[in-house]
Write the structure tokens for this entry.
Amino acid sequence: MADVRSDQRWGVPAGMPRGIRAHLKNGWLPRTAHGWRVHSAGVFTGGGRTYRIVVLSHGNPSMAYGVRTVERVAHAVHRALHRGRAIAQGFTPESEISEVPDGSAPAEGDFTRPGEEPGPKGENPTT
């Protein structure tokens, strides 16, 4: 979690002060019900403390909106914990937030019920 791909370095590190190390795990998924689900969890070490921030969200109209929501919450938490320290990481530019799925989760209609086998080409069998 300490070695995060540059295109996924968004979320709870926003507002993190200099001298703090982030260990980060993000998750995102567009859904028909409740819009985009955008989540971010991080463990932060340095400055004589270790702390965690977890932000879970749903109902976001876009991935970028969800990322910005998560980052604003995280920014407020970091600011409250580290008053007067310079910020090392700001908000992620919207142009760097991709809504292209990474393929780690099946499409919404590709889930099967327990005990069912997927149909041809990943389609669910009809009953």
